[in-house]
Amino acid sequence: MSAEVLAAGGIVIRDGKVAVVHRPKYDDWSFPKGKLDPGESFERAAVREVEEETRLRCRLGRELPSTRYRDAKGRSKLVRYWEMAPLEGDFEQTPEVDELRWLDPTDAADLLSYERDRQLLRAVHRM
């Protein structure tokens, strides 16, 4: 059995809207996240991954509920999330993320591809 995949990400909030990203590889809408590098903390990975996927340098806020699921390769995956506030930067397309939308929580919930992300959003916004 393979080891659990460890990942971290963020719910980036600006002016009451949340950042939702589109990943062309999976054709899905989700929150920015990614796998930890060897020896990297969850907090550091969350900030790094959000910046890599959105080009936004963010400040870490409170930790949110984690999600656990099977990834596309059937491995168990744990993702820890934090609320984040953007400090600087502007979105630029990358090979991983081709679009970012700032949406109010209701519109974000409608667009998100996964129920686990909608549950996470509800934990942030008490929808």
Question: Layout of SSEs?
Answer:
Elements (H helix, E strand, L loop, with lengths): L4 E10 L2 E7 L4 E3 L2 E3 L6 H13 L2 E7 L3 E4 L5 E13 L10 E5 L1 H7 L3 H11 L2
Parallel strand pairs: 1-7
Antiparallel strand pairs: 1-2, 1-4, 2-3, 2-8, 5-7, 6-7
Helix pairs in contact: 2-3
Strand content: 35-45%
Structural class: alpha+beta
Mean pLDDT across the residues is 94
Taking the sheet with the most strands, its summary is: 8 strands, mixed
- Along the chain, the helix and strand elements come as EEEEHEEEEHH
**So what's the CATH class?**
Alpha Beta
Radius of gyration: 14 Å
List keywords for this structure.
8 strands; eight-stranded mixed beta sheet; 41% strand; 127 residues; globular
Q: What can you tell me about this protein's structure?
A:
Strand 2 (17-23) and strand 3 form a beta hairpin. Helix 2 (105-111) packs antiparallel against helix 3. Strands 1, 2, 3, 4, 5, 6, 7 and 8 form an eight-stranded mixed sheet that branches. This protein starts with a strand and ends with a helix. It has helices at residues 42-54, 105-111, 115-125; strands at residues 5-14, 17-23, 28-30, 33-35, 57-63, 67-70, 76-88, 99-103. With 127 residues, the protein is of the alpha+beta class. The protein has three helices and eight strands; from the N terminus they run E-E-E-E-H-E-E-E-E-H-H. The chain has one domain: Nucleoside Triphosphate Pyrophosphohydrolase (Alpha-Beta Complex), CATH 3.90.79.10.
Describe the structure concisely.
By secondary structure, this protein is an alpha+beta fold. It is built from three helices and eight strands, in the order ββββαββββαα.
